[in-house]
Amino acid sequence: MYRKTRTVAIGGHGNIRKILVGGENPVTIQTMWKDTIADVSEGSEKLFSILRQINDLKSMGCDIIRFAVPDMESAGALCLIAERTDVPLVADIHFDWRLALECLKGPVSVIRINPGNIGSRERVEEVVDACRKKGAAIRIGVNSGSLPKDLDQMVSAGEISRAKALCMTALRETEVFDELGFTDVVVSMKASSVQETVEANEEFAKISDIPLHIGVTEAGPLIGGVVKSTLAFSKLLSEGIGSTIRVSLSSTPENEVIAGREILRECGKRDGGVTIVSCPRCGRIGFDVHGFVDRWQKELLSMKKNVTVAVMGCVVNGPGEGRHADLGIAGGGEKAIIFKKGKIVRTIDVKDADKVFREELETL
């Protein structure tokens, strides 16, 4: 039986906004930075570019962003970035505990580690002590490709399932933090299999009150990854399992955030914001739906309006199929129509579509 989780505070120190994960709090959305940050330096254009993109991701609904930290240069760069944004950042650390300690010299909000791969118990304790002093949380990351040798052998011998091994691994790792009295912990158990991911998280949720970060690892390209993540998330979220999510895609961070946002909306876990409805396009098309959506999607999803916008391909079905929309646009030939709640309010030249659409959007 699922048990309600404890609450873990992410951020809240310095200029970083505080986000509560677990308990009765809303499910948060995460993404991961796709490029190296080792070459980021004070005052560099790359630093400003990263900060602009972080702000865009935040405006689209992203709550937390994770960065890979494979070396000391990256650790220093992450501190620079964290000092200049209010979005909580996660340092993804493998093998070298000193990288975690370096990141904690700046306002990094979470250290993501696997205690089993950073060495001795003393090193784990050193990281925990630094996190405790800084007010940073720890995320334990377990995936199907890094199981302990004994459990991996049991899986190979058919003695336990891979999902069971994932759960057992996570429980082993959390014992260290329980012994140290450190409770600001989030756990993730990820497999590339939807079923294994679901089963591992269901098993863990029966035993522990630690909040779970859910995701399907190496989910694949945009379409396949969204399908796998949707199947896993909808099952777990319907059971009340999952305090924070990431849709892992071989695509952009923006697409990960958009996918996560839409999954949470359809699962009834997130309200508000602009909902975009658009037709798939067909041979009857009279309006460039794809181009219009591409131009407007980021701006619409960043708006603080609780409205539905419809972008339809033709005037034949547009106002009817989009009649529930607060604002819609459809086209035919050289003309386009603007409609609200299914009623046409303006007929315009296609070349003026973006200008007029913005005028009407601002009236909502």
Q: Could you describe the 3D structure shown?
A:
- The chain is of the alpha/beta class.
- It has helices at residues 45-60, 72-82, 97-103, 121-134, 149-156, 162-179, 194-207, 222-238, 253-266, 289-301, 318-321, 353-361; strands at 7-10, 19-22, 28-32, 64-68, 89-92, 110-113, 137-143, 185-190, 213-214, 244-246, 275-278, 308-312, 327-332, 335-340, 343-349.
- It has an eight-stranded parallel sheet with strand order 8-7-6-5-4-3-10-9.
- The chain is globular, with a radius of gyration of 23 Å.
Q: Percent of residues in beta strands?
A: 15-25%
How many strand elements? 15
Mean pLDDT: 92
- What's the total helix number? 12
Which shape, going by the Cα principal axes? globular
| N-to-C SSE string, H for helix and E for strand | EEEHEHEHEHEHHEHEHEHEHEHEEEH
Radius of gyration: 23 Å
Arrangement of strands in the largest sheet: 8-7-6-5-4-3-10-9
Q: Percent helix among the residues?
A: 25-40%
The first-to-last residue Cα distance is: 45 Å
The gist of it:
By secondary structure, this protein is α/β, with parallel strands linked by helices. The chain has 12 helices and 15 strands.
Attribute tags:
about 375 residues, 8-stranded parallel sheet, 5-stranded mixed sheet
Secondary structure topology:
Blueprint: E1 7-10, E2 19-22, E3 28-32, H1 45-60, E4 64-68, H2 72-82, E5 89-92, H3 97-103, E6 110-113, H4 121-134, E7 137-143, H5 149-156, H6 162-179, E8 185-190, H7 194-207, E9 213-214, H8 222-238, E10 244-246, H9 253-266, E11 275-278, H10 289-301, E12 308-312, H11 318-321, E13 327-332, E14 335-340, E15 343-349, H12 353-361
Parallel strand pairs: 3-4, 3-10, 4-5, 5-6, 6-7, 7-8, 9-10, 11-12, 12-13
Antiparallel strand pairs: 1-2, 13-14, 14-15
Helix pairs in contact: 2-3, 3-4, 5-6, 6-7, 7-8, 8-9
